[in-house]
Amino acid sequence: MDRQAAFVHNVMIGREGLTRSVLLGLFAEAGANAPRSYISTGNVTFGAHSEDVGAITTSVEAGIGAVLGRPEPVFVRSVEYLQELVAANPFLATPFPDPIERTVSFLSVPINLDRLELPVMSRRGDVALFAATSGEVFAVGRVVDGKTGGGGGLVEKTVGRRVTTRSWNTVLRITNDPV
């Protein structure tokens, strides 16, 4: 059994009836082993055999839809895979020195990297998409005119796919958890 990490799109724990206990209950009811929640943006790790992840994800998505009254996708990666991403150190060289934000956007469907020309800068110049795998896009943010933007919307426009975006620190926290 492998440890998996699920990233729920567009939710904050404690809002709209989706409490931490409700979310963890949905994972447990779906067959996830020892689900654990991280931070308040819908991040859960759980144990599961790789062949069971699809069914667990489908069940959790249905449960979240019932609670919220709208569908929200769940993006799953194995913790082992996330550890490999961390070891690759994608933020070693970025377009901005000392970025204020480092994010990773998880894609629902892999992209063809040959069709992705990086870096991509936001119109304001506060966000740069600078690296990618077939399933993730990495971005950095800086302050421009007192503001910084997130990379998720720019990623969706650039790749034409739905994503969920997390702070790189969230991934580090999950991959460093001894559970």
List the helices and strands and how they pair.
Blueprint: E1 2-8, H1 20-29, E2 33-38, E3 43-48, H2 53-68, E4 74-78, H3 79-88, E5 101-107, E6 120-121, E7 127-132, E8 136-141, H4 152-159, E9 163-167, H5 168-176
Antiparallel strand pairs: 1-3, 1-4, 2-3, 5-8, 5-9, 6-7, 7-8
Helix pairs in contact: 1-2, 3-5
What does this structure look like?
The relative contact order is 0.18. This protein is an alpha+beta fold. It is built from 5 helices and 9 strands. It has helices at 20-29, 53-68, 79-88, 152-159, 168-176; strands spanning 2-8, 33-38, 43-48, 74-78, 101-107, 120-121, 127-132, 136-141, 163-167. It is globular and about 45 Å long. Strand 6 (120-121) and strand 7 form a beta hairpin. A 5-stranded antiparallel β-sheet has the order 6-7-8-5-9. Strands 2-3-1-4 form a 4-stranded antiparallel β-sheet, with helices on both faces.
Concise overview:
The chain has helices at residues 20-29, 53-68, 79-88, 152-159, 168-176, and strands at 2-8, 33-38, 43-48, 74-78, 101-107, 120-121, 127-132, 136-141, 163-167. By secondary structure, the protein is of the alpha+beta class.
Using brief descriptors, characterize the structure shown.
single chain; 179 residues; alpha+beta; globular
Low-confidence stretches: none
- What proportion strand? 25-35%
Q: What sort of overall outline do the alpha carbons produce when their principal axes are compared?
A: globular
Main sheet characteristics: 5 strands, antiparallel
